[in-house]
Design brief:
By secondary structure, the chain is mainly β. The chain has a domain of about 35 residues. Helix content is about 0%, strand content about 45%. The protein has no helices and four strands. The strands form two sheets. Strands 1-2 form a two-stranded antiparallel sheet. It is flat and about 40 Å long. This is ATP citrate lyase large subunit. One of its GO terms (molecular function) is lyase activity. Keywords: Lyase.
Length: about 50
């Protein structure tokens, strides 16, 4: 079902939920786990998402 968020309309398929916790920039990491047909992709970076 299409949704409107401010000035953009489309289908929402992915969501990012992350509570904000104050922290030094050099302690921030980002991990993404994505299920695909061939298995799971796990993406990791030393910088925020």
């Amino acid at each position: 079902k299409e949704q409107q968020v401010e000035h953009t309309t489309g289908v929402l398929r992915q969501f990012l939920v992350e509570p904000f916790v104050p922290h030094p920039q050099d302690t921030e990491y980002y991990i993404n786990i994505n299920s695909v047909r061939d298995g799971d992709w796990i993406l990791f970076t030393h910088e925020g998402g």
